[in-house]
Design a protein that fits this description.
InterPro entries: Divisome_Glycosyl_Hydrolase (IPR052177), DUF4015 (IPR025275), GH (IPR017853). The structure is a single chain. The protein is α/β, with parallel strands linked by helices. It has 10 helices and 8 strands. The radius of gyration is 22 Å and the shape is globular. The longest helix has 24 residues, at 216-239. β1, α2 (41-53) and β2 (58-62) form a beta-alpha-beta unit. The protein has one domain: Glycosidases (TIM Barrel, Alpha-Beta Barrel).
């Protein structure tokens, strides 16, 4: 029996619509994890199987920018049914053997101290300048080496920003700090290259500014320096048929204020805002609030949001479930958990059950 052409059209449209709906409503579960080259393949297979059995779909793996280790781990994770992202510490490059040969590559504070040997907050804060040609090209070279690895979904940028001008409020007591204003020892980058490039555009020296905290040209110069690195990294990732993703601060206005990171302006496929509510003395529903803010700021862009959840900041599995639902209900395409070591069997059981309830 032949079906009328109009009926065939509606059937085809219905099938297409359902497929499209499935594509747009699938919700991903990911986890950040740091690799150790000394671990055996059997140990990694066990770890990846644990994630998959617990409802995890994707792993963001920090190999300390080692493409050889990444090549080793991708097939192990893929075999267990996980997608892999290559997680890289971008502008903050602690113990980078190449960069350490070039002290002039490092960011300089308003006090005139270099991250090469005067590190703000913690010893692993060794930030490279995003303006200086050599340091930015070094970072982009590392991005490309990871992007070349077959089987990964994306190169995942972390620390793609400046050092914290303002710390999250709950961390201030740890450093015995009060940050009511921008403090010069945490204000970057005033290296010769940044000053020269800024003077060329704006005909003034930021070091001589009466109040750099309200000098919008100086702020935008630095925001644009990070954007330029991201945009170039995106071109590199796409050239190798990979996506570009990034871990970022909670939502664009906050990221702008705290770390000079305006991620709603970037050319990037997906961002993972680290909505770690406990860092900011907020309640669980703040996960939904911050997710919604980011989604709204990206309304006219193709960039997607994957909400980062800090496992040690949760009191129990009830809060874990609520955080996941807050992210989904406010427009995230998935959630990512920090980090793999912090996930208990109980957490994984909750994740799996919550995931099943969303279908």
């Amino acid at each position: 029996m032949k079906l009328p052409k109009l009926l065939l059209f509606f059937l085809a449209f219905s099938i297409f619509s359902c497929a499209k709906k499935e594509e747009t409503t699938s919700f991903k579960f990911a986890v950040w994890t740091t690799a150790d080259a000394k671990k055996s393949d059997a140990d990694y297979t066990k770890e990846f199987k644990k994630y998959k059995d617990g409802g995890i779909d994707e792993v963001l793996i920090n190999t300390t920018t080692d493409p050889k280790l990444l090549k080793r781990l991708v097939p192990l994770a893929t075999k267990e049914g996980l997608k892999v992202h290559a997680w890289i510490m971008a502008m903050n490059r602690p113990n980078d053997s190449v960069a350490l040969q070039h002290p002039d590559w490092y960011q300089v504070s308003k006090e005139g101290k270099s991250c090469f040997d005067n590190r703000p907050y913690v010893d692993y804060y060794q930030w490279l300048c995003p303006t200086r040609k050599e340091s930015r090209e070094h970072v982009l070279h590392l991005v490309e080496e990871l992007a070349k690895v077959e089987g990964i979904e994306s190169v995942h940028l972390d620390y793609i920003r400046f050092p914290d001008i303002f710390l999250p409020i709950s961390l201030l007591p740890k450093y015995n700090l009060v940050q009511d204003v921008e403090l010069p020892q945490f204000d970057f980058c005033y290296c010769d290259e940044c000053v020269k490039a800024f003077e060329k555009i704006h005909h003034k020296n930021p070091k001589e500014s009466h109040n750099t905290s309200i000098d919008m040209e100086w702020k935008n110069f630095r925001l644009n320096a990070i954007k330029a690195v991201v945009d170039d990294a995106c071109k590199i990732a796409h050239k190798h048929n990979k996506q570009l993703t990034a871990a970022v601060f909670p939502y664009p206005e906050m990221a702008d204020h705290m770390v000079l990171q305006r991620w709603d302006k970037w050319n990037i496929d997906e961002v993972y805002p680290m909505i770690y509510h406990s860092f900011y003395n907020e309640e669980i529903d703040w996960v939904g609030y911050a997710t919604k803010q980011g989604v709204a700021d990206l309304e006219d862009k193709k960039t997607k949001i994957n909400t980062g959840i800090y496992i040690p900041g949760l009191k129990n599995d009830k809060e874990l479930k609520q955080a996941i639902l807050e992210a989904k209900e406010n427009g995230a395409v998935g959630v990512s958990f920090f980090d793999g070591n912090a996930l208990s069997e109980s957490n994984l059981k909750t994740i799996k059950e919550t995931k099943a309830s969303l279908k």
